[in-house]
Amino acid sequence: MYKAWYCTNPTFRSNPLLTSNNLTATHVMVREVAASDLDSVYTQMQGEIWSPNGEARQLIKSLGLSHTSMSVGDVIETPDGKFHEVDSIGFREIA
């Protein structure tokens, strides 16, 4: 399973200082996603896919978040424990 982490104070830009060690200071894990790759996770985490009728609204609010769709600056954790930040084009692996 992949894990989707959303930025708690999104700037919708990548963060060159972000690491897996400081991830929990700026991000919260939203949900686990069964997927085959990073692109599939990104697609599945778009609001119109996983919350077409506002089903995720309460979850997003309870986590202190303001966005339902995965965006630049959010992070995907792969099943093997690697972390990838959503970038303006593609993904950037973070250490």
Spatial shape: globular
In order across it, which strands form the biggest sheet?
Answer: 2-1-3-4-5
The number of strands is 5
**Major beta-sheet overview:** 5 strands, antiparallel
Helix/strand order, N-terminal first: EHEHHHEEE
Quick check: average pLDDT? Answer: 96
Hey, roughly how much beta strand do the residues contain?
A: 25-35%
Low-confidence stretches: none
Q: Which class of secondary structure composition applies to the elements?
A: alpha+beta
* Chain oligomer state: single chain
Provide structural commentary.
It is built from four helices and five strands. It has 95 residues and is an alpha+beta fold. The chain has one domain. It has a five-stranded antiparallel β-sheet. The radius of gyration is 12 Å and the shape is globular. The relative contact order is 0.28. The mean pLDDT is 96.
Topology diagram in text:
Layout: E1 2-7, H1 23-26, E2 27-33, H2 38-44, H3 47-50, H4 57-62, E3 75-77, E4 83-86, E5 91-94
Antiparallel strand pairs: 1-2, 1-3, 3-4, 4-5
Quick summary of this structure?
The protein is of the alpha+beta class and 95 residues long.
Question: What distinguishing features does this structure have?
Answer:
five-stranded antiparallel beta sheet, 95 residues, globular, alpha+beta
